[in-house]
Amino acid sequence: MRIIAITGGIGSGKTTVANWIGETGVPVLDADRISRDLTAAGGDALPAIRQAFGSGVFRGDGTLNRAALAAIVFAEDPTLRKKLNAIVHPMVTERLHRELEAFRKRGAPVAVIEVPLLYEAGMEHIADKVLCVTASRETRIRRLMERSGLTPAQAAARMDAQQEPGKTEALADYVLSTDASTETNRENTLLLWRRILNESEA
Is 202's pLDDT higher than 60? Predict the structure, then answer.
């Protein structure tokens, strides 16, 4: 089974791209979805997060206060973000392997994994090829403000906490810009996906 990773900075449009590819019938795994599962009520990552960050990032009912945790890891000492990633990333990687194995047993010829911090987490070895989705800084800030209600400063902080986009683009096998209209972005995505499949079969 061939595994194609989709990565890119926050607000770049990678989830939309992954969804369009998924509509063609290709199984898609979302690392963010796995991360949310691990940090949901009763999630496997919660005990380690509580130990590392204290009870202040939890609500009274024991659920994770994601906003409080984000305020700490994005606005304070960057080593705290590394501490959080050290807890969550290995768990996400293990779950990805498990779910990919299920696809492999079902005979899927190709699968997609969407991993925002692919290189930062050292997960690139999972994939045969990597597609980096990009967009201008202005586009990404606008999307984050519209999607998550962030201020421009908050959006910029989230973006700057990630690997510099040019470095990710240089490491990837394919690069796709999503600065165009939705219709054009979709057309470009499916054209590139057909190219990736053809090259995988060559």
Answer: no
Contacts 24+ apart (CB under 8 A), 121-126: 121/85, 121/89, 121/92, 121/93, 122/89, 123/5, 123/31, 123/89, 123/92, 123/93, 123/96, 124/5, 124/171, 126/3, 126/5, 126/93, 126/96, 126/97, 126/100
Quick one: which of 133, 144, 140 has its CA closest to 186?
A: 133
Per-residue model confidence (pLDDT) at position 164? 87
pLDDT of residue 170: 95
CA 124 to chain centre: 12
pTM of the model: 0.88
* CA separation for the pair 55, 155 (Å, rounded): 26
Comparing 71-80, 140-149, 169-178, the range with the smallest average pLDDT is 71-80
CA 11 to chain CA centroid, nearest Å: 10
So what's the pLDDT on residue 76? Answer: 60
Pseudo-torsion of CA 39, 41, 42, 44, nearest 10°?
Answer: -10
- Mean pLDDT, range 78-83, rounded to an integer: 85
Question: Which helix H or strand E contains 132, and what residues bound it?
Answer: strand 129-134
Whole-angstrom distance, CA of residue 116 vs CA of residue 6: 8
Q: What domains does the chain contain, in order, with CATH numbers? A: 2-47+90-201 (3.40.50.300)
Bridge partners (DSSP) of residue 164 are: none
> Are 13 and 20 within 8 A, CB to CB?
no
